Amino acid sequence: MKERIEVLLSAEQIDRRMAELADELYQEFGDEQVELVCALKGAVVTIVDLAKKMKMPVTMNFMSVSSYGNSTESSGNINIKMDLDADITGKNVLIVEDIIDTGRTLKKLKELLISRNPKKLKLVTLLDKPDRRVVDIKADYTGFTIPDAFVVGYGLDYAQKYRNLPYVGVLHFEE
Ligand SMILES: O=P(O)(O)OC[C@H]1O[C@H](OP(=O)(O)OP(=O)(O)O)[C@H](O)[C@@H]1O
Ligand code: HPA
Ligand SMILES: [Mg+2]
Questions:
Q1: Ligand 2 pocket: which of 41, 67, 72, 168 to mutate (most atoms <8 Å of CB)?
Q2: Domain 11-147 has CATH 3.40.50.2020
Q3: What is the distance in angstroms between the CA of the first residue and the CA of the last residue of the chain?
Q4: Where are the domains of the chain?
Q5: pLDDT (tens digit per residue) in 21-79
Q6: CA 34, CA 88: separation in Å to the nearest integer?
Q7: Is the whole-model pTM more than 0.80?
Q8: Which residue in 101, 136, 140, 148 is the catalytic one?
Q9: What cofactor does its activity depend on (predicted)?
Q10: What ipTM describes this predicted complex?
């Protein structure tokens, strides 16, 4: 099967939306320090590009959680492979995600971080695919709402490929 990628969101569109999100987040947090928490690996590109546009002091921390492996379907089991290396108690925390699909990853992550008593916990996602949701979870800030299609690029992978594309595209399989 040949893989073909159809552009859904251009690099320019994403860059413009990132700047808008950074402004919205400034309304939320003002000049207070924000701990950006990113779920590896998909959200790495989003956290870096968003952080560059944020005007308040930020720190970045990383966790590794996985549910998809080499498939286009979530397994339903979320595996925490690496935890944060800092205490978030009493801090402003912003979870940065690349995509909310079934919602399982983010729901689990949010529950875990809330249990650590941050001062404020908010969620930002580059992409939201609401048609696929199986658990009740909403982002506080969303870059783009997208249709039910498997997308790659800008951090998102298929079998670990395509994360480096500067745009988001729909992955098609052809004979
Ligand atoms: O809403 P869900 O159905 O849970 O799917 C969303 C999650 O799936 C992907 O991560 P994945 O587990 O594939 O790991 P990766 O970030 O390393 O690609 C993506 O980066 C999100 O974290
Ligand atoms: O559409 C997607 N693409 C890549 N990874 C994903 N993880 C959840 N949904 C997706
Ligand atoms: Mg993935």
A1: 72
A2: yes
A3: 5
A4: 11-147
A5: 999 999 999 999 999 999 899 999 999 999 999 999 999 999 997 665 555 555 555 67
A6: 10
A7: yes
A8: 101
A9: Mg(2+)
A10: 0.97
